[in-house]
Design goal:
7-stranded mixed beta sheet, alpha/beta, single chain, Aldehyde Dehydrogenase, Chain A, domain 2
Length: 469
């Protein structure tokens, strides 16, 4: 764990395991119940300092943090790859994005403003007023294993930009990069009381923080099931919930099949499919379905999987054995629901081989639930309405993609699909860090992207003047 500007050694340790070979990478101190109260006390002190700190100073801290992350790209990349299982090239890409997210957060600090308010709408008035945005207080950032650095930056950066203090609860499997980020922030000039990192299980440390009345904002990325538990227990707090999905792509017959197949290869199997906006369902117009399936199969069979530290590895291991078991269950269920496994569908060590299933029932797990695995289901459709209905027929709605040259058809789908983002001629796995990112239905509440997150981490304070003389 990390508090008051330094790592804290504990008798009980959290072992960070390399998902590829199950070897222990490092061990970090495990937080205890009393550490929660200590972190809250520290965060109160940090909030008093940060809310009075000029926005320009907070922006400079975040700018410098971005610069340090860039300088230490190799160290961050290796740490991320070892603890999460993502390939070294995927990890390098995450480090680049994290540096950008911190820079965007610095810009958000400089741009955060209020507005004037009119008081003459119902008649003459001598009143004038405006509202300003003030920091909300202690922000709890709860982050997942799959993007342990950049998704931490998406929560911590805007929180500090707004003048809040932060308690970070990273995924227990990937805490190392979170501690490194906290160290980087302190080196960049953040007061030592501004951030603490508590490491432990969600059911103990996490729930104690969620329920604590002094935490004013929770920003969580993870599964729908855990998100529901948090919202049921947090009380009257601001929440941002970035939850699961089973993202779909619609491929119309006028789409360039080979190009789309290459994009689905990237969007379905990056980080072994363990991405919230990973492609899980592909609906292909009946006339081209067989040709598309052949093209996609050719692409997927070329994916080189193995040791994530090797530069030519395209897909690494899954995060743990439970994730492997779940992937196997989804494949078995797909076969039971009339599906055919075209390629993959099996374990090789801690890797689940890149998998395509087709012809599977819409009631199957791979259609209705979140696999979080390198599994893509390809099914046919005949009409636009049928495609839209199938895309919408789940509890999730994060992002969806579609491919067509017909602008009318594209806009019809964009308006009708229930999702936080609809991407035309692009896969739903596309994300840049300045865009409003979030979902509908079971995929979440609120939006990320520094310009959007910072507003959810502030309160509007109204100030009114009356001309009494």
């Amino acid at each position: 764990m990390f508090t008051k500007g330094k790592r804290v050694t504990k008798d009980k340790k959290v072992e960070v395991i390399n998902p590829y070979n199950d070897e222990v990478v490092q061990a970090l101190g495990m937080s205890e119940g009393k550490d929660v109260e200590d972190a809250i006390t520290t965060a109160h002190k940090g909030f008093k300092i940060l809310k009075r700190m000029p926005a320009g100073d907070r922006a400079q801290i975040l700018e410098k943090t971005s610069d340090i992350i860039k300088k230490r790209k190799d160290d961050f990349s290796r740490t991320i790859a070892l603890e999460s299982g993502k390939t070294i090239n995927e990890a390098r890409g995450e480090v680049d994005r994290a540096a950008s997210t911190m820079k965007l957060s610095a810009l958000a600090a400089m741009k955060l403003t209020g507005e004037t308010v009119r008081f003459d709408l119902a008649g003459p008035s001598k009143k004038m007023g405006f509202f300003i945005r003030v920091p909300i207080g202690i922000v709890l950032a709860v982050t997942p294993f799959n993007f342990p650095l950049n998704l931490s930056c998406h929560k911590i950066g805007p929180a500090i930009a707004a003048g809040n203090s932060v308690i970070h609860k990273p995924a227990t499997k990937t805490p190392a990069s979170g501690v490194m980020l906290a160290e980087t922030l302190i080196e960049a000039g953040l007061p030592v009381e501004g951030i603490s990192v508590l490491i432990g299980s969600g059911s103990t440390i996490g729930m104690a923080l969620v329920k604590h009345p002094d935490v004013k904002k929770i920003s969580f990325t993870g599964s729908l099931e855990v998100g529901e538990i948090i919202t049921a227990n947090c009380g009257m707090k601001r929440v941002t919930m970035e939850l699961g999905s089973n993202s779909a792509v619609i491929v119309f017959k006028d789409a360039p099949i080979d190009l789309v197949a290459k994009k689905v290869r990237k969007g379905g199997y990056t980080l072994a499919g363990q991405v919230c906006i990973s492609i899980q369902r592909v609906y292909v117009e009946e006339d081209i379905a067989d040709d598309f399936l052949t093209a996609l199969s050719d692409e997927v069979k070329q994916i080189k999987f193995g040791d994530q530290l090797l530069n030519d590895t395209e897909m690494g291991p899954m995060i743990d054995h439970d994730a492997l078991d779940k992937a196997q269950k989804f494949c078995e269920d797909a076969v039971q629901h009339n599906g055919t496994v075209i390629t993959g569908g099996k374990r090789e060590g801690n890797i689940f081989t890149p998998t395509i299933v087709t012809g599977v029932s819409e009631e199957s797990l791979v259609i209705q639930e979140e696999a979080f695995a390198p599994i893509v289901a390809v099914n046919k459709f005949r009409t636009v309405d049928e495609a839209i209905q199938k895309v919408n027929n789940t509890k999730y709605g994060l992002q969806a993609g579609l491919f067509t040259r017909d602008i009318t058809k594209a806009l019809e789908c964009a308006r009708a699909i229930d999702a936080g983002g609809v991407l035309i001629n692009e896969i739903p796995t596309f994300r840049v860090d300045n865009m409003p990112y979030g979902g509908t239905k079971g995929s979440g509440i609120g939006r990320e992207g520094p310009d959007f997150a910072i507003k959810e981490m502030t309160e509007e304070k109204l100030i009114v003047f009356d001309q009494i003389i």
